[in-house]
Design goal:
By secondary structure, the protein is of the alpha/beta class. The protein has a domain of about 100 residues: ANL, C-terminal domain (GMP Synthetase, Chain A, domain 3). The chain contains 18 helices and 26 strands. The strands form six sheets. It has a nine-stranded mixed β-sheet with strand order 2-1-10-9-11-12-13-14-15, with helices on both faces. β22 and β23 form a beta hairpin. The protein is globular, with a radius of gyration of 23 Å. The chain starts with a helix and ends with a helix. The structure holds adenosine monophosphate. Adenosine monophosphate binds next to β13, β20 and β21.
């Protein structure tokens, strides 16, 4: 089933209801959205002589035209390549080359960068700037009927966020994305036509994926005018749009929870904040729950299994009386309805409950493979199981706790140290605002533990003895950092994930 059929269907059933909004203003009703989708699909095919299966990249900040371009691409049987618009120009160039995108839909903000990439040598490629003269021509083309696709046809090349190595394109098929959407209804929330989805986080990642079930049910997609996360604007949009849900990285949830404009606002319309993509520390989660109430759901996923591996439901967040509530809040929840989750040892054998191993996943949501990378695909999907590269453990009830990326594990004196537990221990110290723990090569121990600490008060950072004590109260002595580095901020990528690779590089440069 073509994902764009939802738009066509809602164009009939919910014709006069809002489909896309820019801030507080309705940009298009479902009738208008459906008509524009079919017209832009026709325009893309004709203007650029595209045929089904061709790739169209989208390099834009969140705006209404983004959603129109995405569904038009699918309507025309083309493959979307949503690119994080905040990436460096060279990184964008890599994705355009790797995916073989022939058209790049972009906005004025990114037009000069993109034009430089499509010129000269790369002239097989064209830029389409929205809004603009050519976009208007494309959008006023003769509408075409919905293109039939097979469930296994690629819909979205999802470029991994590249915290390690160069990004690879996870091939997500129409079936993968349909499963991810159905699984949202099964495990996160039902959605109705009265609801809204607020796209504050980049559409090229989780926010875009969770946009799909909302489009499926005729909810309105709201694009903040700022194009990003602004507390006062988010609060106003929540007041304006009923049944609002949004996806946010844990760092964004923390920022919003600390924003006085959010705390003072009427949050009655807020339905669910879906957070995930990086660890949410317990202290931050507890604070967010006091501001937002039990309207939080956590998801664990990755581009390769689009935002769908496990979920920690709203009900788990609300169940404070449960004897294992704290442990559950530190977990990423239960396997999604459509996904099998196992924790395995080096030979691929399941390990007993509470033991750590690599998380492997199987189900109809798992990507078809990496675009044009058969070796990387064969390394990642083995015997039908997607190897996530994440280390975790299942408890007796089936709740999964993530330890770390296998690449972040520190081995010191032959002992495994998961940076996350050291970080959790240090965050209990009131003088620590944020922290990231990495390993440094060490001639004696193999690796030694180093903590990069952002102090709450830069003028009076906590003493290292104090920090040691915070660790010793909670974790074994050998896990304690051998070195503390005080920094103003941690390096993060555009999705809010801490770049541990950069921290390790810094240590290498110093030695
Ligand atoms: P990406 O494909 O860019 O979304 O990155 C996926 C990776 O982010 C996963 O493999 C995990 O390492 C991490 N991740 C995703 N969700 C969570 C979560 N809820 N808690 C901790 N880490 C997460």
């Amino acid at each position: 089933m073509n994902l764009a059929s939802w738009v066509e269907r809602n164009g009939r059933t919910h014709a006069d209801r809002p489909a896309i909004a820019e801030g507080e203003r309705v940009h298009a009703t479902w009738r208008e959205f459906a008509r524009r989708t079919a017209a832009i699909a026709g325009g893309l095919r004709r203007e650029f002589a595209l045929v089904p299966g061709d790739r169209v990249a989208i390099v834009m900040r969140n705006r209404p035209d983004y959603i129109e371009a995405l569904y038009a691409v699918w309507h025309a049987g083309l493959v979307a390549v949503p690119v994080n618009a905040r990436l460096h120009r060279d990184e964008i160039a890599h994705i355009l080359d790797d995916s073989g995108s022939t058209v790049v839909v972009t906005d004025e903000e990114h037009a000069s960068d993109i034009t430089a990439l499509v010129d000269g040598e790369r002239s097989a490629r064209a830029a389409l700037v929205a809004p603009g003269e050519r976009w208007r021509r494309v959008a006023s083309a003769e509408p075409i009927p919905l293109t039939a696709v097979r469930p296994e046809d690629p819909a979205w090349l999802f470029y991994t966020s590249g915290t390690t190595g160069r990004p690879k394109g996870a091939v997500l098929t129409h079936r993968n994305l349909l499963m991810a959407s159905l699984s949202y209804f099964a495990d996160i929330d039902p959605i109705s036509v009265q609801d809204s989805v607020l796209h504050a986080a980049p559409l090229s990642h989780g926010s875009g994926i969770y946009g799909l079930p909302h489009v499926a049910k005729g909810a309105v997609s709201v694009l903040p005018e700022s194009g990003g996360v602004d507390g006062a604007e988010m609060a106003a949009l929540i007041r304006r749009w009923p049944g609002t849900s949004f996806f946010a990285a844990p760092t964004m949830v923390k920022r919003l929870a600390e924003d006085p404009a959010v705390a003072a606002s009427d949050l009655g319309n807020l339905k669910t904040i879906i957070y995930g993509g990086a660890p949410m520390y317990l202290a931050d989660l507890e604070h967010a729950l006091t501001v937002f109430g039990p309207r939080l759901a956590q998801i664990y996923g990755q581009g390769e299994s689009p935002m769908t591996i496990t979920a920690l439901a709203q009900a788990d967040h609300a169940d404070r009386a449960h004897p294992r509530w704290r442990e559950r809040m530190e977990s990423v929840g239960l396997a999604r309805t459509d996904v099998l989750v196992r924790v395995v040892d080096g030979e691929g054998r399941p390990v007993p409950p509470e033991e750590s191993g690599e998380i492997v996943v199987r189900g109809d949501v798992v990507m078809a493979g990496y675009w044009n990378k058969p070796e990387a695909t064969a390394e990642t999907i083995r015997d039908g199981w997607l190897h996530t590269g994440d280390i975790g453990s299942l408890d007796g009830d089936g709740y999964l706790t993530l330890r770390d990326r296998s690449k972040d594990l520190i081995i010191s004196g032959g002992m495994n140290i998961y940076p996350r537990e050291v970080e959790e221990a240090l965050l209990h110290h009131p003088g620590v605002r944020a922290v990231a723990v990495v390993g440094r090569p060490d001639p004696r121990w193999g690796e030694s533990v180093v903590a990069f600490v952002v102090p709450t008060d830069a003028a009076a950072p906590p003493g290292t003895d104090d920090l040691d004590r915070a660790c010793l109260e909670r974790i074994a002595r050998f896990k304690r950092p051998k070195d503390y580095r005080f920094v103003d901020a941690l390096p993060t990528n555009n999705y809010g994930k801490v770049l541990k690779r950069d921290l390790r590089d810094r240590l290498r440069a110093d030695s």
